[in-house]
Amino acid sequence: xxxxITAKAPTTQSNSVGTEEDLNPSLPDPFMSVLIRxxxxxxxxxxxxxxxxxQEYDSFEVIVVEQSTPAHWESHRAALERFDSRVxxxxxxxxxxxxxxxxxxxxxxxxxVLFIDDDDLPVGSNWISAHAKNYADPLCIGxxxxxxxxxxxxxxxxxxxxxxxxxxxxxxFLRGRKYIGINRVKKHVQWLHGTxxxxxxxxxxxxxxxxxxxxxRGEEHSLFYKFQKTKKPGEYLMFDPQPKILxxxxxxxxxxxxxxxxxxxxxxxxxxxHWVVAEYFPLRFYGLYPFFLLYGFDFSLRYYRHNSSFTxxxxxxxxxxxxxxxxxxxxxxxxxxxxALRFLxxxxxx
Length: 350
Description:
By secondary structure, this protein is α/β, with parallel strands linked by helices.
């Protein structure tokens, strides 16, 4: 395997979109490129590679966009060297999540790119083939697979029909609904979750890839909004429960989303609204601007409460846990108009 590839900015992407006369080829046995973005999680990447090597599907490669610290890289480099030439490692400085995707796609040689995060694990020897089979239909552009928290986990939704209808849809405030634990195929979904999803590489290139300047929140949508506005008649994204991955939320390392401050989470959310949503849904966003700000604040707060803690909040050390939390929330709410003004007067990065 080649461990000496140095990442460069992708040069093959464009913002051009194919004409309606261009037809996607039927790909009954596509060459698949499995793309893994990794930061300080190489032991878990090795587990993913082990599963990939046991796949019943032969026509594939694995690209690892490796952004770890030098010490972490050197500690695990020897273990990576034992894999064959199907595995290629692209060493890079630390990138934003969508940047890493764009860089990785530029190195992929496959007809279809299959994405998996470095804290997830494919389930079964048919993971790659379960994605690949859907591309025999030339109208199929992308596939999202099922995610479970335990092996042999059964769907746990109280209302399965409601979960099916909401699977990979968008709310009015442009939050991506997931519901990716269902066990039924659904075609014509509105977006794909970033892990355990696959896309035709030609579509990614034609759409220009993901908007690279987002830190995390909503990174997937920057591509799928473009697709929904430019897709040709009949083209679709779909959900297929057969390709399955195990989510492993207890793994440390990576971008450490679960330790981010509420302020950082809120900034990420505002980036998504001002830099992505405003481009594709300007009337809705600016027409209901105060409501989007308040919804973004509430969404960020709920995410923070669910995934993080208030232990490092200054106010808690003075006023105690409950009062300190309330003061911290009020502090950030008071900053929200200033944050919004900065986004409105600052030019969007290009």
